[in-house]
Design goal:
Elements (H helix, E strand, L loop, with lengths): L2 E5 L2 E3 L5 E8 L8 E6 L5 E7 L9 E3 L7 E6 L4 E6 L8 E7 L5 E2 L3 E5 L1
Parallel strand pairs: 2-11
Antiparallel strand pairs: 1-3, 3-8, 4-5, 4-9, 5-6, 7-8, 9-10, 9-11
Length: about 120
């Protein structure tokens, strides 16, 4: 049974920071590329950031232009946990944030709400 459980969302003022976590079970976490994706109600899903499953020396990250320089994605394979450090938050970052496993986003969590106001 695959489970991805996000946490760390909440209400923050513009310019503030939040750290999202996603704990994964039921799959071999270290073998999966991982992503953060967000959705505003009534709008399309937006890919936010991704991190490869490669060993740390070769691991790469990528970001949507809208968050580049403000958000940092990371992973701890020993803890089977994905992170998203979000700094300099803007009102337009308000969304439900999901973690997804696999290059095809085959597995998703239930999401955590981030509100910037």
């Amino acid at each position: 049974h695959v489970q991805l459980v996000e946490s760390g969302g909440g209400l923050v003022q513009p310019g503030g920071s939040l750290r999202l976590s996603c704990t994964v079970s039921g799959i071999t976490f270290s073998n999966h590329d991982m992503s953060w994706i967000r959705q505003v109600p009534g709008k399309e899903v937006e890919w936010v950031a991704g991190i490869t499953s490669l060993p740390s020396l070769f691991r790469t990250t990528s970001y949507a232009e809208s968050v580049k320089g403000r958000f940092t994605i990371s992973r701890d394979n020993a803890k089977e946990t994905l992170y998203l450090q979000m700094n300099s938050l803007k009102p337009e970052d308000k969304a439900v944030y999901y973690c997804a496993a696999g290059g095809d986003f085959g597995y998703w969590g239930q999401g955590t709400q981030v509100t910037v106001s």
